Amino acid sequence: MLATAREMTVDDPLGARADFESWMVARQAKLLRTAYLLTGDVHAAEDLVQTALAKLYLAWDRVSGAPSVDAYARKIMVNEHTSMWRRLWRHREVVTDTSSHDVPVPGEEYDGVGAALWTAVRALPERQRAVVVLRYYEQLSERETADALGVTVGTVKSQTSRALDTLRGHLGDRDDLTGWEAHR
Amino acid sequence: MNTSSELNDRLTREADQFFTRGGAALDVAQVLDRAGEIRRGRRMRASMLMAACVLAIAVPTTMVASHRDAAHRAPTPAHTVKVDRSPLSLEGLQTGSEPRGGYVRDSALHSDGFSYTLDGERIAGFAKFSGGLVVAVQNDAGDLRARRLGVAQTWPLAGGFTVSKGGHVVAFVQPDGTPVVLQSGETAYEMPRIPRGSGFDAVAVAGEDCKETAANPGCTVWVDSSGPKPESWVSTSHGFADRASTRLLRVTDVVEGRLVAGITKVADDGSCSEVEGVDTETALWTTCDHRLLSFSPDGKHLLASSAYADGMGDSELAILDSDTGKTVLDLSTAGRAVLTQMVWEDDSHVLASLYQDGRWAVVRISLDGHREYAVPPVPGNDYDRSPFVLPSS
C-alpha cells in the first residue's frame, strides 16, 4: 500500500492528492451511507465507495474544478453500482459469502417499522431502490436524480411512483404508514 | 407526516446503521491502492503495446540486414501500410460515409436514407436484418420492448439484439428467459425458455432459418443470465435449453461452428477472458489484458477493450486475432476521451461512439488504425448517455 501511495504521489506533481484527500475525508461518510442504502450490505458498500473514490481520484484533474464534485462522485458510484460489471462481481460475492451481516437486527434504535421499511426497500428492483435512495435520502430533485442515473425525468417519476406503490403494498397494513402518496 | 419526510427519516436512520454494523471509514491509502490497481492495469497494456511496436520495428530491420548480407539488394519494406497507433481523439478527422447499418441520434433512427421516430419513445437499441429493422424502445418507466418496424406485435425485452452471420435471423430474449427469433416475412418463433436465472441477454445466434427440416438444422441462441449468479446458456430449435459452457461466466460472442468468446474471471481490478472451440469447451487462448467484445463478421478478428470495465466508459479499443489472441491493433483514447459503444461495421472497420471535451461523435476505425467521422461531432457532456446508438450485430 505504501509503495502504491508513493507511486501515486510521484504521478501527482501538482499536489492533486492533497486536494483529493481533503475532499475524501470530508465527504466519504455520506458516500458510504448512500452506498449502504444502495447495496444493503456493509462490505459491499465499502467496496463500492472504494472503487468509486479510486476512479474519482484518477479523474481528479478534470473534475476537481467542476461545479459539483459531489454530484460527479455520486454519478460514478451509481454507475459503478448498476453496471454489468458490478452486477457480475456482486453475484460472485453472493455465491461465496453466506454471512448474515446484512440482515436487519432490531434494536433500541431500530424499531419494527424501520425494519419493515428497510426490508421492503431492499426488495425493490435495483433501479427503483436507487431512485428511492437518491430522491428520499439524498433528497435530490427529479432532474438531479435523472442526471445521476442517466435516465429521463419521466423515468424517475414513474419509477418513484412504482416504488412507492410497492412499499405501500408491503407496509399498507400498518396504521402509521397509511396515507403515503407519491410526490409528483 | 408526508412521504418525503417520513422516508427520509427512516432511510437516514437506516443509513446511520452502516457504522454500527461494522462499517468503517476508508483510509486514503486504500483508495489510492485501488486507483493504483486500476492504473497499473492500464500501464501494463500500454507497456505491452510499446513492446509490440518495438518488435514490429525490430523484426523488419533484422530481416533487412540478413537480406542485404545475402543478396546485396535494396530492401523491400516489410509493410506498405502505415499503421496509425496514435490515441483516439475527435480532433482533426475527415468526415466519411454514414454508418452502413444505420445509427440512432437523439431517438431518431437513421437507416438507408430514412429517419424513424417512435412517438417520443427512446430507442435504446436496434438491429438490421434481412427482414427489416427491429428496435428496442424504452418508455418512461424504463421498460424495454422489442418492436419490429412495420409489424404491430411487440415483445417485452431484456438485454439487446443479436443478428446471425448471414443477416437473416435476429434474436433477443424476454425478461422471463424465453428467447425470440425473428426472420424474414412476419415469422417469429419462441425458443425453449432458459430454465433459471434473471437479467437475461441474447448474445449470439447461429443459423439462418429456425424452422427445422430434414435439410435445415435450425438455429441456436446463446443467452447470458446475470442472476442469481452469472451463467451462459444455449436455447436451440431442437427443443431444449442447456448450459453453454461451464467455464464461461458470460459468453460475449460466437463464430458459428468455430469459436466462443467469453469472460472466465472477474475481479475488482480486472478480468480474464478466453476463446474456446465451440464444441470442445477447450481454451484456445486466454487473456487477462483485454475484455473480449465481439467477433468481426468474417470471424477473423475480435474487438476488445480494457480488462477493467469502467462505468464511465472505456479508454481502450483493441483488435485481436481470433485464433491466436495476438494483438492486431491497440488504441488508447486521448486524454479525456471515452468510448461508450464499439461495434463492427464490416470485416475491417469498427464504429465507436466517442466522447471528448464536450462533444460526441461516431468514429470509424480501420484495422490499420486509420479513423474518420462516421457521424461528425455534436455537443454534449459526459454526464449524459451518448446521443448515439449503434446497431447490434
Structure commentary:
The complex is a heterodimer of chains A (184) and B (393). Chain A is 72% helix and 0% strand. Chain A is mainly alpha-helical and 184 residues long. In chain A, helix 2 (16-39) crosses helix 5 (69-82) and helix 5 crosses helix 9 (142-149). Chain B contains two helices and 28 strands. A four-stranded antiparallel sheet of chain B has the order 3-2-1-28, with no helix packed on it. Chain B has a four-stranded antiparallel sheet with strand order 4-5-6-7, with no helix packed on it. Chain B has a four-stranded antiparallel sheet with strand order 8-9-10-11, with no helix packed on it. The radius of gyration of chain B is 23 Å and the shape is globular. At the A-B interface, helix 1, helix 2, helix 3, helix 5 and helix 6 of A face helix 1, helix 2 and strand 17 of B.
Largest sheet of chain B: 4 strands, antiparallel
Principal-axes geometry of chain B comes out as globular
Secondary-structure element order of chain B, N to C: HHEEEEEEEEEEEEEEEEEEEEEEEEEEEE
- Spans of chain B with pLDDT under 50 lasting ≥5 residues? 42-79
Computed over alpha carbons, the radius of gyration of chain B is 23 Å
Computed structural class of chain A: mainly alpha
Largest interface: A-B, 80 and 59 residues
Helical residue percent of chain A? over 70%
Helix content of chain B: 10-25%
Question: Count of helical segments of chain A?
Answer: 10
Distance linking N and C termini of chain B: 52 Å
Computed over alpha carbons, the radius of gyration of chain A is: 18 Å
The total count of strands of chain B amounts to 28
Order of helices and strands of chain A: HHHHHHHHHH
The average pLDDT value of chain A, as a whole number, equals 71
Question: Ranges of chain A with pLDDT <50 over ≥5 residues?
Answer: 1-10, 84-110, 175-184
- Our estimate of the beta-strand percent of chain A is under 5%
Largest sheet of chain A, described in full? Answer: none
Strand neighbour order, sheet with most strands of chain B = 3-2-1-28
